Amino acid sequence: MDSPHAESGRPLSPHLQIYRPMLSMMMSIAHRITGGALYFGTLLVVIWLVSAAAGPSAFSTVQAIYGSILGQLVLFFYTWALVHHALGGVRHLMWDVGHGFGPERELIYRVCLFGGIGLTVLIWIVGYALKGAAG
């Protein structure tokens, strides 16, 4: 038996299988994913702060976990999620005031994408440089 929509001759709503992935679509999905990832990352910050308040033993344990290769990788992606989501927020703010809907829209998406990656790498380079200068 066909669906009621097929009998009425009305078109069915298109699905993701029909749409060609576009940068705007991918950036919207990435913005939502990074927003969710920030909840997890904020939990990591809370754990770090609580361990600092709990004493030297707890703090050194958390520092060892966060300082491991896996810990550093998680923190790197948390940094990227934070920067990417912030740039997406600026993009949405621009839209809220009525800017960025013309041909420059694609450029804004690219600036958010590559700016997030570039700023994340820059933050980590500066962080390691300051860590080396302090130690």
Structure commentary:
This is Succinate dehydrogenase cytochrome b556 subunit. The protein has 135 residues and is an all-alpha fold. It is 79% helix and 0% strand. The chain is built from 5 helices and no strands. Helix 2 packs antiparallel against helix 3, helix 2 crosses helix 4 and helix 4 packs antiparallel against helix 5.
How would you summarize the topology of this molecule?
Layout: H1 4-8, H2 23-54, H3 56-67, H4 69-96, H5 105-134
Helix pairs in contact: 2-3, 2-4, 4-5
Transmembrane segments: 29-52, 64-87, 107-130
Protein name: Succinate dehydrogenase cytochrome b556 subunit
Family: Belongs to the cytochrome b560 family.
Helix/sheet category: mainly alpha
CATH architecture group name: Up-down Bundle
How many domains in all?
A: 1
Beta-strand content estimate: under 5%
The biggest beta sheet is recorded as: none
Q: List SSEs in N-to-C order.
A: HHHHH
Quickly count the helices: 5
Mean pLDDT: 89
CATH superfamily: Fumarate reductase/succinate dehydrogenase, transmembrane subunit
Cα separation of the termini: 73 Å
- Total number of β-strand segments? 0
Question: What is the overall shape?
Answer: elongated
Membrane topology: Multi-pass membrane protein
Pfam family, one: Sdh_cyt
Main location: membrane
Family: Belongs to the cytochrome b560 family.
